[in-house]
Amino acid sequence: MNDLINRILSDMQPNRSVHRVGHGYVSIFEERYVFKVFHDEDPSEPLLIRPKVGHELRMMLIAGSDSVRLIGRLFDNTKQKLIGFIMPYEQALAPGVNIGGEPGERAKFSKEQKREIIDKLCRLIERLQARRIIHGDVKPSNLLLCSDGQ
């Protein structure tokens, strides 16, 4: 068990991250799981759940089946805080998050596949807006191609 924990912790180091944003980073573990970790907004706050984590989790719950499925939560035992979560690995449609290819390599799609993706995206946005969710950051790196092709 300790070997597994050490492998997980070493894989989560920021220098092994695949995507960095101002409020955290995303790491891939064994190309099966995605660890999304958020930095403390105010480390002195004695909150159990970091505000950005709480907000993202609420949006995932409201989005329902239109969101990535959560399979676990990440806790910082030293600070007693929920700092992120674990999701299944899915392939992003954008370069920069493409784990299997060269950095900057774009996924190749036919014109028909591109039309299908645009159609699915339009339907997704309609469903989210019906739930009163406005994403505000729709871009290729935020679109995931799931293992079932959806």
From TrEMBL:
Superkingdom as given in the UniProt entry: Eukaryota
Membrane-spanning intervals of the chain: none
Ranges of residues in domain Protein kinase: 1-150
GO molecular function: ATP binding; protein kinase activity
Protein name (record): Protein kinase domain-containing protein
